[in-house]
Structures are given as structure tokens and as C-alpha cells.
């Protein structure tokens, strides 16, 4: 899954109901519309 707005992962997780999650990469280039790494 990927996200570009706040709450998007939650909505996607409600659809697919995953059992585990792995954060593989967070970088300044992923900030986009979220504004900061803290918001991610």
C-alpha cells in the first residue's frame, strides 16, 4: 500500500484487512502533500 494523504492507509486497510504491516522506506521525497516526515 502507499499513501499521499492523511488517513489513506487506514481506509485501504479497512478494505483489505491485512494481518501484518511492514514500513520499508520513508524519505523526505515521500513528504508530498503531508508536509513533514512527522506527518507520515
UniProtKB/TrEMBL annotation:
Transmembrane segments: none annotated. It holds the Pfam family Mur_ligase_M. SUPFAM superfamilies: MurD-like peptide ligases, catalytic domain (SSF53623). Residues 1-40 form the Mur ligase central domain. GO terms for molecular function: acid-amino acid ligase activity; ATP binding. InterPro entries: Mur-like_cat_sf, Mur_ligase_cen. This is Mur ligase central domain-containing protein.
